[in-house]
Request: fold
Amino acid sequence: MIDTHAHVHDHQYDDDRAAMLDRARAVGVERIVTIGTDLGNSERAIRTAEAFGLMATVGIHPHEAKDAPADVAAAFDELRAGAAAPVVAIGETGLDYHYNHSPADVQQRVLREQIAYARAASLPLVFHQREAFDDFVAILRELWDRTTMRGIVHCFTGDAAQAATFVDEFGLLLGIGGVLTFKTAEGLRAAVRAVGLAPIVLETDCPFLAPVPYRGKRNEPAFMRESANAVATLLGRSVAEVEAATTATARRFFALE
Reply:
């Protein structure tokens, strides 16, 4: 399995990072992508990836858009040039209107800049979208070329109609994690049934959103097996089939083959 969206460089793992990664490997998590959320955080993701044999991304989360540098491209170039670990995508980037830690217009500008950078660098994008569907889709319709670009809507929690828009119109993948196991997530389960296994990749978004039966605890990549089990049950597939299919999709997405 590949954990396509984790934050294992987070300070919550400072006391047991090596042991936590050993637990992940023990249950079959073969690769982990640790996701940057601003310039400093992206550098920490890269350094952690270098130390532990992981993959990293560089990105500016919509919460942090207000603090984005004047020249995002130059800042990303510098981070990538100094990386010994694979930097496999740009993000996470997107729109988040739930908290509005950054003004909407600033979020939109920084999202556009990161899409442009990823396109120029021939890198895929990791998207964050919360309560901003209409504006997010409008920007994709303006900038997205599904024939040359790849993207994941990470921690997808939308409904079947939103899933169909992302998958059918834009060719995006959906990152599915612990939320699928929550009692309140029937809309998400309907969405997964609607799109099927082909556009799905697995993630944890750790240390956040631990699946049942670990809900309320610090999440970690080893818990991704619970999400794989939930997808298998939902779609009437074997766990082995879900693990193989999502791993193959993730390997293609991050150009690991």
Remarks:
- Residues 104-121 form the longest helix (18 residues).
- Residues 166 and 172 are 5 Å apart (CA to CA).
- Strands lie at 2-6, 31-34, 55-58, 87-96, 125-130, 151-153, 173-176, 200-202.
